[in-house]
Automatic annotation (TrEMBL):
<feature type="domain" description="DJ-1/PfpI">
    <location>
        <begin position="9"/>
        <end position="166"/>
    </location>
</feature>
<dbReference type="InterPro" id="IPR002818">
    <property type="entry name" value="DJ-1/PfpI"/>
</dbReference>
<dbReference type="GO" id="GO:0005737">
    <property type="term" value="C:cytoplasm"/>
</dbReference>
<dbReference type="Pfam" id="PF01965">
    <property type="entry name" value="DJ-1_PfpI"/>
</dbReference>
<dbReference type="InterPro" id="IPR050325">
    <property type="entry name" value="Prot/Nucl_acid_deglycase"/>
</dbReference>
<protein>
    <submittedName>
        <fullName>4-methyl-5(B-hydroxyethyl)-thiazole monophosphate biosynthesis protein</fullName>
    </submittedName>
</protein>
<dbReference type="InterPro" id="IPR029062">
    <property type="entry name" value="Class_I_gatase-like"/>
</dbReference>
Length: 186
């Protein structure tokens, strides 16, 4: 790999482990460096109970070392609603035009940081949930499993395999799609 920058994988309480499973393998197969970033340095548990400890935080890892960032969904994101530090961080990442990927409920976090402004997107959140949250541009919602708009990838949680492939492709990684999906046509 010519680029030594990292893909940052955000970890926060109740993150969805399965939504990251194939993507982490694609990144590994492609030789991509990863860094697991937390909102702070405290250990957390994913939604299935997997204990995790971030390697660095959004406050202390040099953003210039990132060429991409991934946000997994969460089964209950009440603790992240209106999280100003996270919103500011995501806005800063977006200003740098890196690959940004969010799955399931995580596009809400992008909308909170104005990253979705003017971009097409999808999410696992319902119309009622998006309306209630009040941060989404409903006219840009696309009813599809995965949506790619320039450097931005969004997906529903059930599309975690295609999500991983789209992120890997945007990063120019070499990996074997048939390893995950023997009859792959994606």
């Amino acid at each position: 790999m010519g680029d030594s920058r990292y893909t940052g994988v955000l970890l926060y309480p109740r993150f969805s482990e399965y939504e990251l499973s194939v993507l982490l393998s694609v990144l590994k197969q492609g030789g991509k460096r990863t860094i697991f970033l937390g909102l702070d340095d405290q250990p957390i548990r994913g939604e299935a109970g997997l204990p995790s400890k971030p390697e660095a935080t959004i406050h202390d890892f040099d953003i210039n070392l990132l060429d991409s960032i991934v946000l997994p969904g969460v089964d209950d994101f009440e603790h992240l609603v209106g999280h100003q530090e996270l919103a500011e961080y995501l806005h800063k990442v977006d200003d740098q035009k890196r690959v940004i990927a969010a799955i399931s409920s995580a596009p809400y976090l992008l909308s909170m940081g104005d990253v979705l402004a003017g971009k097409t997107y999808t999410t696992g959140l319902t119309t009622q949930q998006r309306t209630f949250l009040g941060t989404f541009e409903e006219e840009n919602y696309v009813d599809a499993p995965v949506v790619v708009d320039d450097y931005l990838v969004t997906a529903r949680g059930s599309a975690f395999i295609e999500f991983a492939f789209r992120v890997g492709d945007l990063l120019g990684l070499e990996y074997d799609k048939t390893w995950f999906y023997p009859d792959c046509r994606i």
